[in-house]
Specification:
It is built from five helices and five strands. It is α/β, with parallel strands linked by helices and about 150 residues long.
Length: about 150
């Protein structure tokens, strides 16, 4: 069982979806801190602890929207999974796209899971809950690599 609070990096530019995700995690059972990056460039700065994110924690989990300004989610995923120190962080693609090629491409770039955003907030909270109990309670996450 995961007892320490976990750090979640939410990469999402839609303020409504950010609010909904925070809400959903707040109602969940696992103590967590959600850090928000509003575009792909900020997400990578957070992960690499640069450009104002020097004190950013290493996230235990990344929730990544595909449709992002400045650098899209696919590019972020690619860069993330190309980096030996970052590729271990479980990354879940969250998107409103149900296009099969987006799903396939995300898995080809080593996304750990792919969730299509439901429009209904209650349904979304439900998904986050089941997701939370799976990723954060059942699955053993890899330890951070020793520096």
């Amino acid at each position: 069982m995961h007892s320490d609070p976990i750090d979640i990096l939410l990469v999402e530019d839609n303020p409504g979806d950010v609010r909904l995700t925070k809400e959903a995690f707040k109602e969940g059972r696992i103590d967590n801190t959600i850090h928000v990056a509003r575009n792909g460039v900020d997400a990578l700065s957070f992960l690499y602890q640069r450009d104002g994110y020097e004190d950013a924690p290493r996230p235990d989990l990344i929730l990544l929207d595909l449709n992002l300004p400045r650098k899209n989610g696919e590019e972020v995923l690619e860069e993330l999974k190309d980096d030996p120190t970052l590729r271990r962080i479980p990354t879940v693609v969250l998107t409103s796209s149900e296009a099969e090629e987006d799903v396939v491409r995300s898995y080809e770039k080593y996304a750990n899971a792919y969730l299509t955003k439901p429009i209904d907030p209650d349904e979304f909270i439900e998904i986050v809950r089941s997701f939370e109990s799976f990723w954060l309670s059942v699955v053993n996450l890899p330890p951070a690599e020793e520096q």
